[in-house]
Design brief:
The structure holds two protein chains of two kinds. Chain A contains no helices and eleven strands. By secondary structure, chain A is mostly beta strands. In chain A, strands 2, 4, 5, 6, 9, 10 and 11 form a seven-stranded mixed β-sheet that branches. In chain A, strands 1-3-8-7 form a four-stranded antiparallel β-sheet, with no helix packed on it. In chain A, strand 5 and strand 6 form a beta hairpin. Chain A is globular. The N and C termini of chain A lie far apart (about 35 Å). Chain B is mainly β. Helix content of chain B is about 0%, strand content about 55%. Chain B is globular and about 40 Å long. The N and C termini of chain B lie far apart (about 35 Å). In chain B, about 35% of the residues are buried. The chains are: A mainly beta, B mainly beta.
Chain lengths: ~110, ~110
């Protein structure tokens, strides 16, 4: 089934550890996004990529980095996790500049 | 001022009634507008997209866009208990900077 796959589904991480959240799509979409969702704050954009080889900062980029080496993959890295990064992380993709985005199933991350 | 604003609710409507969800956005050059539904613990799923002023209908759902007032709404006719969820308004900019920005969502409760 075509779509977006995120891994892991959930993770408990010790503070100070490095962690990469994986996101892969098989729809050949140009744009990809990473969001975090926290109660009362909605979906906040962390980083995005309009096409392979380019990335941009969203609303809350500090503490996170991304890369877009190819069309399909858009990993999100926490270099040194802190408890405030405890959240549900969603990856999404869209075909083009005006089109809708489709979401992965999410990764629930707890930093302790 | 947040880029996309929604009333957090909860909005409570009886079964069979019309639910009206509203959203305002700050960027006048926004081109694409979306409504997503999110059930608790799940990822957002697209309900409607709208790009031009006026109404767009799909089954029980109608999206309304007024670019002059920077306002987009979602009407749900004949509301069902299964419509109880959080509804997220999302707005996309123009050109290559295709950031997709979400409001914090409105929680809808359809009562029996």
């Amino acid at each position: 089934i075509a779509g977006i796959t995120q891994a892991p589904t959930s993770q408990i991480l010790a503070a100070g550890r490095r962690m990469t959240l994986r996101c892969t799509q098989d729809m050949r979409h140009n744009a990809m996004y990473w969001y975090r969702q926290d109660l009362g704050l909605g979906l906040r954009l962390i980083h995005y990529s309009n096409t392979a080889g380019t990335t941009g900062k969203g609303e809350v980029p500090d503490g996170y980095s991304v890369s877009r080496a190819n069309t399909d993959d858009f990993p999100l890295t926490l270099a040194s996790a802190v408890p405030s990064q405890t959240s549900v992380y969603f990856c999404a993709s869209s075909a083009g500049a005006r089109t809708e985005a489709f979401f992965g199933q999410g990764t629930r991350l707890t930093v302790v | 001022q947040k880029e996309v604003e929604q009333n957090s609710g909860p909005l409570s409507v009886p079964e069979g009634a019309i639910a009206s969800l509203n959203c305002t956005y700050s960027d006048r050059v926004s081109q694409s507008f979306f409504w997503y539904r999110q059930y608790s613990g799940k990822s957002p799923e697209l309900i409607m997209s709208i790009y031009s002023n006026g109404d767009k209908e799909d089954g029980r759902f109608t999206a309304q866009l007024n670019k002059a007032s920077q306002y987009v709404s979602l009407l749900i006719r004949d509301s069902q208990p299964s419509d109880s969820a959080t509804y997220l308004c999302a707005v996309k900019g123009t050109g290559t900077a295709s950031k997709l920005t979400f409001g914090t969502g409105t929680r809808l409760q359809v009562t029996l």
